[in-house]
Amino acid sequence: MAEALADIARVDGLGMVTIRAGLDRTGNTIAEAAGLAIPGQTRIVTDGSRSLGWMSPDELLLILPAAELDDAITTLTDALASEHALVADVSDARAVFDVTGPHAGDVIGKLMPVDLDDLPSDGLRRSRAAQTAAALWRIPGGFRLIGFRSTADYLRLVLENAAIPGSGLAPR
Amino acid sequence: MSRTPPFRLPRGGRLIDRAFQLGFRFDGRHLRGVQGDTLASALLANGQMLVGRSFKYHRPRGPLASGAEEPNALFGLGQGGRFEPNQRASTTALVAGMVLRSQNCWPSLDADVGAINNWLSPLLPAGFYYKTFIHPRPFWKHVFEPIIRRSAGLGRAPVDPDPDRYEQAYAFAEVVVVGGGIAGLTAARDAADKGGRVIVLEQNPVWGGRTPVDHDGGQAAIDALLADLRGRGNVTLRRNTMATGLYDHGYLLAREALADHDPNQGIPRQRLWRIRAGHVITATGALERPLSFACNDVPGVMLASAVRDFITDYGVAPGQRIVVVTNNDDAYRTALTAQAAGLEVVAVIDARPQASGDLPQAVRAANIPVMTGKAVAKVKGSHHVEGVALCDQAGNGRVTGTLDCDVVAMSGGWSPVVHLYSHCGGRITWDEPEAMFRPDPSRPPLGADGKAMVTVLGAANGDLRCAGDLERSEAPTMPVWVMPQNAPYRLRAKMWLDFQNDVKVSDVELAAREGYASVEHAKRYTTLGMATDQGKVSNINGLAVLSKALNQPLETTGTTTFRPPYTPLTLGTIAAEAKGDTFQPLRKTPIHAWHARNGASFEPVGHWRRPYSYPRAGEDRHDAVNREILAVRKSVGTLDASTLGKIIVKGPDAGRFLDMMYTNMMSTLPVGKCRYGLMCNENGFLMDDGVVARLSADTWLCHTTTGGADRIHGHMEDWLQCEWWDWQVYTANLTEQYAQIAVAGPKARELLQRLPGTIDLSQDALPFMQWAEGELAGIPARIYRISFSGELSYEIAVPAGRGLELWEKLHAEGRDLDITPYGTEAMHVMRAEKGFIMIGDETDGTVIPQDLGLHWAISKKKPDYIGKRAQARSFMKDGSRWQLVGLESLDGQVLPDGAYAVEPGVNANGQRKTQGRVTSSYHSPTLDRPIAMGLVRHGPARMGQELEFPLPSGEVMKARIVDPVFYDKEGTRLNG
Questions:
Q1: Which of B123, B508, B762, B923 ranks highest by number of CB atoms within 10 Å?
Q2: Domains in chain B, please, with CATH?
Q3: What is the ipTM of this complex?
Q4: Whether residue B127 has pLDDT greater than 80
Q5: Please, what is the Cα angle at B914 between B910 and B918, to 5 degrees?
Q6: Of B168, B236, B588, the CB nearest to A171
Q7: What pLDDT is attached to residue B925?
């Protein structure tokens, strides 16, 4: 049997923090507390370990190793104490998959209405995968997808289904 | 004359490879074709001209066309789950071992009993069914329609599940070109020069459209274009891909055939492309029109283009003696092609008074007789063409001579394929000189920038001579809508317009006489263009006949609406991965696997699956519900409440915001406390409920119903973003961040206190409607003292990833307390025993909180809340609204949910008047009797009165109006 179009692997051990705040006013505070620059619109910045993604004009998502989660929440909450802001742990609400391999884009292209040619190396898209909400950004060798914990099984099934051997999108 | 072999020509056939023979079965007979054949060419190569029966009269039918427009050669293809009806022989590639079945005939294609309809055809004109079967009234639905439906209808629906895979994929391009003929490929090259991404879609397995068949040097020109395009990095060439529909904003759907011909490869059979195009170029070519002469439907009468396609592409002789009938120069190509292949061309019958262009001259030079001003009066033969009777086109059909032949190649001119252009709003205009509807350049479909989003090129734009230097000059087409011009009724009643649906010239004329002046009405009355081919070859001819009958120009008549899909799509392609395990995203709680392991019987709640109950050996679902309820009332049970919506609302204006969202006052809720709240929509109707906890000075946590979580979060954001954008409030939907477990029953506190933890659970420290947080069993937890069962109850929220751990610890620790997991139904029954309402049972979108006796949860102090104004309207304050009561069944039986309470008299529709209905109804194991709630007019003022509930069986059940709280009205059990 030929090989699947891409490797699909569930990723554990990540912490995630939703930050809602007026980014114009609080950007510097958040950047300092998170240890990362504020991403531009629809972008994600990363230092290899931590990433900070732009989710909406007043929402960011901090992704970091689970071990650093509690400290990060405390730091952010304290830093934003005097601001109108909301910091919430959403680590357990998410399911994360890495889709990697030379044809990873084909798997994404079957499930998500995202123009990958138009997705910069630091781009982040909030979209859907088949019928469930999902966001994605690039990682070395492919893409990282985040969806909701409750539909993790579905997400895995549709990803694996889209990756069946021999079903690449190249014209034949 | 009869058809004679050889049917496969000794030479030629640019698309076939004679070295590879392929066997297949047609109606049980074993036949052979070759690699590259379509089903149509393979059947013709076996001398099989009769391929089906028509829809209404069961007339014998042969192939008419060679492409997607084919109306006749439709088969049931495949077996078992892979059986598909109505597969077009002209576009289906032959595969070894294929099994074809003819359609719409019984007992066999050659001897079809239904053909009796043909003899009855004078009695079966357009509208026959409507006129004949109108009385007696009930007979239509129960007698006539089922019989008509069984005897009509092409093909049979498959009965087994489709075993094949299908998928969808998204694509994006600056330009998408539909059509891989010379116009499309040239346009693709020009577009690619500008640098953007270009996708080219071609419905056929081969590129080039008509150019390689129709023009010397055509193949070379196509090959050169393909070589150029293949060398470009920004061009994607995709063949076997049918663009089926074009929608607003450049959204194009296209079906790519991947493994139609080899279903056992394991790859998806078809793929539906969902493409966003910056600009769409349709170069979809044109379709040849038949001519309307008598008996133009006899097998062997084919489109002139199809005759030369079969010869050139497949090396197949549709016949040995060919008569060409035309009103244009193009069809002369068929005469030249046929002669070059060694077939006899008896004559070219040209309806035009003269024919002096390059092609007619070439035909004359080849010693083929050309007869101008002539027409076919009638085709001779019944199961196949035996000859034609000739007459003058300008006359009334008086026969001037006959010609023997076995094929009639006809051409009534060409109609541009304007379908995709029209799908998204492009308008067309009648081009009188060319006798065609073509895109109106002043009214294209517009994009967001107000400019044309579609450009139509080549034959699709009416430019029938679009092959540039390859073209020869051609004289104009002469419109011929009826042949001969003054044909009498006898002939017009045998001129087929729609071959699949058996619509004739006389039927359209009848529709016009009976007042069906609108083209859309005439279409539906006659069924013209309503078959699986959607009138690709019939529509324009039909419109022309209608226009003539109405004595108006074609432009005035217009066309019917072009709707997607261009050719039928398999439902599997539309569903794609959405079947079986991936039909819908099933949402699972963090404790789902435990429920499944422990025998839960699940029920859908939105996309969640929640345990309804946990039947044990020997129990059914309801036995389990009863056991679970008694266990909770007696000792302790656990409910997985993780699905409940949990929305954080935070900010300086959060209190003010929640005062608007809820009917109650939430801003005054002290930190550490909980309050039950009601949420209404702008119309005042109750839409959600749940417990709100105040977490800090500026933070609240709002619980919603399971089904309401996303909707209520959206509702909040809607108001925050669109109406109160200057209020300082942030929300976050944390539903999935937490597992939530309800621990309920008199032993609940005892159980929780056994687990190590930092939270004081005593009555004094954590009274009813308060919350506390800390650690429980080593897990960070927030515990709410809230109760939906009426028992001492704690709802414990922990991070979702640790929900299962807590659940299992509770069950390990509570074994001696007979700890029992309970499901949604036990929860429902217990809340009904307590008279608590349930969104979706006691509410249905027309119920206001006041109807449910919830006045206590509606703040009188607040100046406003969403729904307040609506609830002040006269009919909301009307005392005659149905209101919540309990219902006590008088005969010990459970009232059916939804049953209506009647009152004397009937309404304007002759129906019994009603005065109330059952909203929740259960057997209460706690009380060991039926309990019910319902909404009854003036209900609360009518305690003790009896109501009658007639059932569909005729039985009448009786119930007494009682208080809706059946159990522990004093609420003493809340504290254990």
A1: B508
A2: 17-106+288-411 (3.50.50.60), 166-283+416-470 (3.50.50.60), 592-643+737-831 (3.30.1360.120), 645-736 (3.30.70.1400), 879-974 (2.40.30.110)
A3: 0.97
A4: no
A5: 135
A6: B236
A7: 97
